[in-house]
Amino acid sequence: MANRQLLREIRLVHAEVNGIYGHRRIHAELLAQGFACGRHRIAGLMRRNGIRVRTRKRWRPVSSSQHLLPVAPNLLQRTSISVGCRI
Questions:
Q1: What gap in Å lies between CA 51 and CA 44, rounded to an integer?
Q2: Are the beta carbons of 42 and 22 closer than 8 angstroms?
Q3: What is the pLDDT of residues 8-67, one digit of tens each?
Q4: Is the pLDDT assigned to residue 79 strictly greater than 80?
Q5: For residues 14 and 76, what is the distance between their CA atoms, to the nearest angstrom?
Q6: Res 6: pLDDT
Q7: Inter-CA distances, 18 with 4, 11, 21, 70, 76, Å
Q8: What's the pLDDT score for residue 81?
Q9: Do 20 and 53 form a contact (C-beta atoms < 8 A)?
Q10: Which DSSP string corresponds to 11-62?
């Protein structure tokens, strides 16, 4: 009975934040609302009921260096490799 009520609240919080909160944030939100429950209990209820976090979009480079366009001139005469370079 308590799990049903808790699951209802988990679904409400999950819907309010558009599915971006995982079990840790949902746990904090439910504690703030006055529900006494454990983080692992929330994680288990979410897992068993198919409540998943929306994953972030992976970063991809915008452009590719594999093109035939001309490269801008090196007006400052800097080296092209700047990783780990200390002056």
A1: 10
A2: no
A3: 999 999 999 999 999 999 999 999 999 889 999 999 999 999 999 998 888 887 776 777
A4: no
A5: 51
A6: 92
A7: 21, 10, 8, 44, 47
A8: 62
A9: yes
A10: HHHHHHTTT---HHHHHHHHHHHT----HHHHHHHHHHTT--PPPPPPP--S
CA 18 to chain centre: 12
Q: For 77, how many CA atoms within 13 A lie in the half-sphere containing its CB? A: 0
Q: Enumerate long-range contacts of 21-30, CB under 8 Å, 24 or more apart.
A: 21/53, 22/53, 30/6
Tell me the one-letter amino acid at 47.
Answer: R
Torsion 13-15-19-20 (CA) sign: negative
> Residues 14, 40: contact at Cβ < 8 Å?
no
Sign, Cα dihedral of 60, 64, 66, 67: positive
Tokens, residue 65: 């260096």
pTM of the model: 0.62
